[in-house]
Each structure stands twice: as C-alpha cells, then as structure tokens.
Design brief:
By secondary structure, the protein is mainly alpha-helical. Helix content is 64%, strand content 3%. The protein contains 15 helices and five strands. The strands form two sheets. A three-stranded antiparallel β-sheet has the order 2-1-5. Strands 3-4 form a two-stranded antiparallel sheet. Helix 4 crosses helix 5 and helix 7 runs antiparallel to helix 8. The radius of gyration is 38 Å and the shape is flat. The chain starts with a helix and ends with a helix.
Length: 361
C-alpha cells in the first residue's frame, strides 16, 4: 500500500511539473480569459465561441454574462454585441478553419443554386468563382463592409428564389428519407416472409422423414425407390416454393414502387435523356456504315503481310505484331485492330462532345 501511495504521489508531482513547465500559450489555451478558470483544475469546463468575433469564453461565463440578453464581448477592445443563442462549441482547433467553415455555410445558404439551375457549365463555374471571391474577402478581412452589403442586397433581391431552392432541397431530403425508410421496411418484410417459409419447409421436412419411415415399414417398395421418390417430391416442392417466394417478392416490390415516387420508373423523355450521347450514332446502328478492305488472314499471308496487303490498310507497327506467333497463338488477329479503329471513329470517340452537341442541336 505504501508503494502505491508513493507512486500516486510521484504521478501527481510529475503531472503538476509538466503543467508548470508548459508554455504560456498552452496554459492560456486551457484557461478562460474572463474568469481565469483552468481546464486542468476543472476538467468538465467547456469553451464556447461566437461567430461574431470568435473569442473563446467558458460556458459558465457565457451563462453569467449573456443570460439576460445581448451584451458586449468581454474581451478588451472588442466591443461586439453578442447573443447567447449564437454561441457554439468549437469544432476545429484552428480558429481560422472554424471561421472559414462558418463563412462558407453563411454564404452557401444565400448563394444556394446548383448546376441544374444554369444553362451551361461555364455560367455555373462563374457563379462558383463569384462565391469563392466573397468567401476569400470575408475570411481575409478585405472590403468586408462592402461585401456584407452586397451579400445582404443579393439575399434581398433573390429572397423568393433562395426560399424556393431551400424548399426543393428540403423536399428532396424528406423524399430520400421516406424512400430509405420504405426500403428498410420492404427488406424486413421480405426477410420475415422468407423466415416463415423456411420454418414451414423445416416442418415439412420433419413430416416427410416420419412419412418415409412409416412407408419403409409398411410398403413393398425398396428403400432406395422410396428415398428416390421422396427426393423427387422434395425437388419439385422446392422449385414451387422458390417460384412462390419470387412471386411474393415481386408483388411487394410492385406495391413499393407504386407508393414511392423515387422508386418509380423514369418517363420516356427522362430515359431518352439518360441515353449516352455519341456524335455519329455509331453504336446505335445495327448495320455498319462501312465496308472493310480485304485484310490478310492466312498464316502465309501474315508472314508476308507487306506484300499481301497491297491495296489494304498499312501500319508497319501492327504488321510487326501480326507476324508474332505468340500473338497469333493467343487468338489475336490484325482484322480486329482495324475493325475496332473504324468502330471508334464512327462512335466519335475522341471528339469534343460538347462541341458536337452544339452543332447537332
């Protein structure tokens, strides 16, 4: 016991010595600058910050100073009016990051458009660049008053659009939550049905085993014949049960799709928009729009391809591969190379799709 006590005393002295020897910045970081309460002596103490000035104050001081209403920040030379409901716990240790996250959240709540609200990607990118300029100015203290006025003016001019966009996003989130909840219920219902059918199959199997023993005792058929007969019956019943389970699952999914908008199939117009775009429709044609020139096929022709490919395609590098016996043995053929190159050309691979779209519209 004496050794334990000495050990505890030594640990306490060591901890106190480490704290005493710590730098002043480290000590201030864990001390409320208002009431001078130290986190070392009060481990449950919580620090709060206010986005108005980001000065750190302990929770007790916030309750004491701001419970009766708005009041100036107690930090010397700050003087900003703070409200208790604006205080929050600090998430990031670096207050610069904390401040930037809050600014982005504030600006994003006003400039809340998405790519689908713009006619093209260029205008959307310009919109994002404008947002970054606002965040940069506010975060670095550049033309803050003017930027705040512009932000307030934009919010006033586009108040209806901002509210409508928030309502659409809220509806999307609500629909998604409903969809996920319905999916989980559907999954649980399927598992419940499957478990019930498994229990029924287990009971049926026990009944069949007893029936087999009774028939073996009383039937004139051999045991092998009786077992084979029963196995055939079980196989037939299992296939019927699988079809039955599949049918029940299909009915449940059909009911689920009818009651959940997010699970319904897309309209023909939506499906048409989902079809990948290829400039020359090369992957939509059943019949190719070209005829290949004759390409050497036999081994003798391939070994002398430079002379046997007159009037056909010419590619010295591919011709070298065509004579490689390892390639030939693996099934590689030169005709596949040229056919693929033509297919890619007619599908428009390598084309600037945006430019082709603008021309084709």
């Amino acid at each position: 016991m004496l050794q334990v006590a000495e050990g505890m005393h030594s640990f306490a002295q060591s901890t106190l010595r480490n704290y005493t020897n710590s730098s002043p910045d480290d000590q201030l970081k864990d001390m409320c600058p208002i009431c001078k309460t130290d986190k070392y002596l009060s481990p449950n103490m919580k620090f709060l910050i206010n986005p108005e000035c980001y000065h750190k104050i302990c929770e007790s001081c916030v309750d004491r100073i701001f419970s009766l209403g708005p009041a100036p920040c107690p930090y010397p030379k700050c003087g900003k009016i703070l409200r208790k409901n604006k205080f929050k716990q600090q998430i990031f240790e670096n207050l610069v990051i904390e401040r930037e996250i809050d600014i982005r959240r504030k600006v994003g709540a006003i400039y809340n458009k998405t790519e689908e609200d713009f006619p093209n990607l260029k205008e959307y990118n310009q919109y994002l660049e404008h947002i970054e300029d606002i965040v940069f100015k506010l975060n670095n203290g550049i033309d803050v008053e003017q930027t705040e006025r512009e932000l307030a003016q934009y919010e006033q001019d586009h108040r209806i659009e901002i509210i409508e966009k928030n309502m659409r996003e809220s509806q999307k989130n609500a629909d998604l939550l409903k969809y996920q909840d319905a999916m989980e219920r559907l999954k649980q219902e399927k598992l419940k049905i499957q478990k019930r059918m498994e229990m029924e199959d287990l009971e049926f199997s026990k009944t069949q085993q007893q029936d087999l023993l009774d028939r073996m005792a009383n039937s004139s058929m051999t045991s092998e014949e009786l077992i084979k007969q029963q196995q055939n019956q079980l196989t037939k019943r299992n296939s019927q049960r699988k079809r039955q389970l599949q049918q029940i699952n299909n009915q449940l999914e059909q009911q689920f799709n009818q009651s959940n908008p997010l699970a319904r199939g897309k309209s023909e117009d939506e499906e048409a928009k989902m079809v990948p775009f290829t400039p020359f429709q090369g992957d939509r044609e059943l019949h190719k729009k070209y005829h290949m020139l004759r390409i050497p096929q036999t081994i003798d022709e391939l070994m002398d391809i430079e002379n046997s490919s007159k009037g056909s395609y010419h590619d010295p590098y591919i011709f070298g591969l065509a004579k490689n016996k390892e390639y030939l043995g693996a099934g590689w053929r030169i005709s596949n190379v040229f056919e693929r190159a033509l297919d890619e050309a007619f599908m428009g691979l390598g084309c600037n799709i945006e430019s082709e779209k603008s021309v084709s519209v």
